[in-house]
Automatic annotation (TrEMBL):
Domain Amine oxidase positions: 57-555
Annotated SUPFAM superfamilies: FAD/NAD(P)-binding domain
Molecular function terms from GO: oxidoreductase activity
Record Pfam families: Amino_oxidase
Name of this protein: FAD-dependent oxidoreductase
Residue segments, region Disordered: 28-47
Native species: Streptomyces triculaminicus
Length: 598
């Protein structure tokens, strides 16, 4: 195994840059550590100043929408870079000969066609030579693969040719379509295929009352009756879907969340209500294709950015937020004043800023303490030969660490990896997401959290080879492995592993603890992938939609005449609407869904 640049610690990677950025932007020294008093909101700004707390997708979206409506926006971000978990980052010490550093990332980008709100934002970010801005940097994949181990044939699912929907979706047509799909690609017993298709029909015809009040409380494992089915059924349709896509365990994952995601993918594959193809990636590292142009555009709209600012507290006076207490890398504190505040931090960080007074002003915020997060973290492998395993994502469905991957260089049009990145010998980047950090691996018999960074890299590499090299073809070769890079937010090598950038997961009942964008405090609004939106999944689309909802709530609270942000809901088939309305009535009467045979 090649020695990895991923051995750099998070502190070593961002600590120095954070300190320099914080000192330069704040102009503070340790002697100025005491918080400065905030001015009275609205005193000089006419009520148009907004502090956005967090510079990820939610924060940047809120800043974008507010700036376009004439608000003076300042974004405060605790890290030394913008973009949150969506950003790409330079691998330290990897550049040679005038090339750019190797591109690392928290995890690969995946922008399915059923996203509608995020693509709208991408179209509104100018990009040189693109008629549709950064949206034109989206490129489609043509297939997806489920990589099996133990000599089982991998399941390849092409996207081309499946985008023609039947003219009308009746229950019979729907069942036949799903049966054919799973019979062709999953090779499951006929009775299990029919049963799973029937369970999806139950979901598609369930009304909102049943979806929220009943299926939100039922684990996906129970809904699909996985315990009484074959091992393949459990692995492909219960465990694999939830752990690799929704990043939670099938035994506890909310049926509402999992089925909402499946429903969106299926309609996307049918070409209904979609912005584009089911699987899309960017044609360059994320910052080059999206984040950097976005920040440049926001600056042109007057948005100000302050990096290296960690929000420690919110000051509440007279029932309103008067300031956010910020701490820089050197420990100096100051209070940032504004008329309105959009909290756009991840939930595990946002809820630490809600003191007793804030929680008393909005008791509903306490429910966010019940929201759970888990690890879904990326590692990149840099290869000396082009290795396009598949023109799409690979789900290593049998891997104990629930691995998904994508070969990126094949998508990066106009870029030559050897010419543009690293030391001139790297030709490809295999970007991998690890969703399970608490199960033993196949090399060391330890969980990922109990491994060192080097052991994680070796283990992930071995698990990918176990699925790709087991049917007589050598796909991954040790000889072409140049180096690797593990997300610096992860700290390993001890008994108390930490991850500074976790992901919201969705066990049963999560929906009831997700807040709305508008709080009971008239000038505090919430944005982030934990806020309740239609997609019901922690995604960039959810972050974007929640930010739009927060801006609309702010506009309502201020009586603004500005146009509201459009928020496009997930597609619903009109053919099923009468059945969904009928099911709402059946639910009120205490009856099962008409297609629910148990």
């Amino acid at each position: 195994m090649a020695h990895g640049t991923g051995s750099s610690t998070r502190r070593g990677f961002i600590g120095g840059a954070t300190a320099v950025a914080a000192t330069a932007a704040l102009g503070t020294t340790p002697a100025q550590a005491a918080p400065r008093p905030a001015r009275r909101p609205g005193a000089r700004s006419g009520g148009r100043e907004v502090a956005v707390l967090g510079g990820g997708v939610a924060g940047l979206t809120a800043a974008h929408e507010l700036a376009e409506r004439g608000f003076k926006v300042t974004v405060y971000e605790r890290k030394s870079a913008l973009g949150g978990k969506a950003r790409s980052m330079d691998v330290p010490g990897s550049a040679r000969g005038g090339r750019k550093p190797l591109p690392g990332e928290h995890g690969f980008r995946f922008i399915p066609g059923f996203y509608r709100n995020l693509p709208d934002t991408l179209r509104r970010i100018p990009f040189p030579g693109n008629a549709n801005g950064c949206h034109d940097n989206l490129v489609p994949s043509t297939e997806v693969m489920l990589a099996r181990t133990g000599g089982l044939e991998d399941i390849r699912i092409p996207f081309a040719g499946i985008g023609k929907p039947p003219p009308v979706l009746t229950p019979d047509v729907f069942l036949r379509m799903l049966t054919a799909f799973f019979e062709t690609f999953a090779k499951l017993p006929a009775h299990e295929i029919a049963y799973f298709a029937g369970r999806l029909l139950v979901w598609f015809t369930s009304g909102e009352r049943r979806r929220t009040r009943e299926w939100e409380r039922v684990p996906w494992f129970e809904f699909t009756k996985a315990a009484r089915m074959s091992a393949n059924y459990r692995q492909l349709l219960a465990v694999g879907i939830t752990r690799n896509i929704v990043a939670t365990k099938a035994e506890v994952a909310s049926t509402k969340t999992v089925a909402t995601c499946i429903e969106a993918f299926l309609f996307n594959a049918l070409g209904r209500g979609a912005d584009g193809e089911p699987d899309r990636v960017l044609n360059a590292p994320t910052n080059e294709a999206w984040i950097d142009p976005w920040v440049t555009h926001l600056r042109s709209l007057g948005v100000e950015f302050h990096l290296g600012r960690c929000v420690r507290d919110l000051r509440l006076e007279g029932g309103r937020i008067t300031g956010a207490v910020l701490e820089d890398a050197g420990g100096a504190r100051r209070t940032a004043a504004a008329d309105h505040f959009v909290s756009a931090m991840p939930v595990e960080h946002a809820r630490t800023t809600w003191n007793a007074g804030v929680r008393a002003a909005d008791p509903g915020l306490a429910r966010c303490d019940r929201l759970e997060t888990d690890w879904m973290t990326g590692i990149q492998f840099y290869l000396t030969e082009p290795t396009p395993i598949l023109h799409g994502h690979v789900n290593h469905i049998d891997s104990p660490w629930s691995i998904t991957s994508v070969s990126q260089a094949q998508y990066w049009s106009g870029r030559d990896f050897r010419r543009d990145y690293g030391d001139g010998t790297v030709a490809d980047c295999l970007s991998v997401d690890v969703s399970e950090w608490d199960r033993p691996g196949i090399l060391y018999g330890r969980t990922a959290k109990r491994c060192t960074r080097e052991e994680v890299a070796r283990e992930v590499w071995a698990q990918m080879k176990a699925g790709l090299n087991d049917t007589g073809r050598t796909v991954l070769r040790d000889a072409v492995l140049h180096s690797w890079f593990l997300d610096p937010a992860v700290e390993l090598g001890g008994s108390h592993a930490t991850n500074d950038e976790q992901l919201l997961i969705h066990p049963t009942g999560t929906w009831f603890n997700r807040p709305q964008a508008r709080t009971a405090i008239p000038n505090l609004f919430l944005a982030g992938d934990y806020v309740a939106v239609d997609i019901d999944l922690a995604t960039m689309e959810g972050a974007n939609a929640s930010a739009r909802a927060a801006v609309n709530a702010l506009l309502d609270a201020t009586g603004s005449s500005a146009g509201r942000c459009a928020i496009t809901p997930l597609y619903r088939a009109p053919e099923f609407e009468p059945l969904r309305r009928q099911d709402d009535l059946r639910h009120r009467l205490g009856l099962r869904n008409a297609f629910d045979l148990g």
